[in-house]
Amino acid sequence: MLKGTRVGLRDRREDDIPVLRAELYNDVVNAARAEGRPWRPVTANDPQLAFDNPPENLASFSVVELEGDTLIGTANLWGIDTHNRNAHIGVGLLPAARGKGYGTDVVAALCYYGFAVRGLQRLQIETLADNEGMIRAAERNGFVREGVLRKSAWVLGEFMDEVVLGLLAGEWEGSGAA
Ligand SMILES: CC(C)(COP(=O)(O)OP(=O)(O)OC[C@H]1O[C@@H](n2cnc3c(N)ncnc32)[C@H](O)[C@@H]1OP(=O)(O)O)[C@@H](O)C(=O)NCCC(=O)NCCS
């Protein structure tokens, strides 16, 4: 398990699946805003939930509170590119777990995984320009805003701007994650 200060990132387990499906992936508004693709109903064997044969370019974790081992969401390092040595970060917390500092901690743990475990040199986050929680969680970990992709996301009937944030290995200050 990867450990942040208050969160752990571990493998996906069977009893995570109904919770993630009900509280995260079947929330149409959240999924449409967070996923960058049209929402569709998620089945139990959907690759977002369970990975029998995970693709090489994806590392997908379930997030738990260290105290109590309660499931609170998902964390992904996706688009892992071993030639250019970069990858993207994605985080999805269950509604009850948002706004408590866990997202910041999850990003820290994913940085440890990307930079220290995988030896990457660049991590990137794309998020809707109005997603202040995600932007702040990234900035708290040293990510800098690199640009705005104007009207690049179709979200529930409108085009929205996305922000690109990046962090380089040499800028990463590490953390309590291990
Ligand atoms: C986005 C998300 C990962 C952020 O994690 P979080 O645990 O809620 O955020 P944190 O509690 O760590 O907050 C980080 C900072 O953002 C601020 N913040 C959090 N939610 C906020 C909100 N809705 N509006 C404004 N600021 C917010 C916090 O006050 C904190 O600021 P600080 O560092 O100045 O104290 C989480 O809310 C989530 O999973 N949301 C739904 C899915 C999603 O949007 N995923 C990202 C898709 S790219």
TrEMBL record:
<dbReference type="InterPro" id="IPR000182">
    <property type="entry name" value="GNAT_dom"/>
</dbReference>
<dbReference type="InterPro" id="IPR051908">
    <property type="entry name" value="Ribosomal_N-acetyltransferase"/>
</dbReference>
<protein>
    <recommendedName>
        <fullName>N-acetyltransferase domain-containing protein</fullName>
    </recommendedName>
</protein>
<dbReference type="InterPro" id="IPR016181">
    <property type="entry name" value="Acyl_CoA_acyltransferase"/>
</dbReference>
<feature type="domain" description="N-acetyltransferase">
    <location>
        <begin position="18"/>
        <end position="170"/>
    </location>
</feature>
<dbReference type="Pfam" id="PF13302">
    <property type="entry name" value="Acetyltransf_3"/>
</dbReference>
